[in-house]
Specification:
mainly alpha
């Protein structure tokens, strides 16, 4: 009975989200708990920080990225 109620509630929520103009999307992201993740993230960060054009890259990202208070998803 509980399983059916949960499924019904999820279906209703999905229908509401679709009606508001959103669509469901599933994505895979790196597992931050995986062994070696922190070390690899640090290695990549240090590599980027050591680039001679780091400041230019960051300026470009800041100029062309979203506004600081911009929220994704149409909120």
């Amino acid at each position: 009975m509980v399983r059916s109620a949960d499924a019904s509630r999820r279906a209703a929520q999905r229908a509401e989200m679709r009606a508001s103009g959103l669509r469901m999307m599933e994505i895979w992201v790196p597992d931050t708990r995986a062994p070696g993740f922190a070390e690899e993230a640090r290695r990549q960060s240090l590599f980027i920080a050591a680039e001679s054009n780091f400041d230019d890259m960051m300026d470009f990202i800041e100029r062309n990225g979203p506004e600081p208070n911009h929220r994704q998803g149409g909120d």
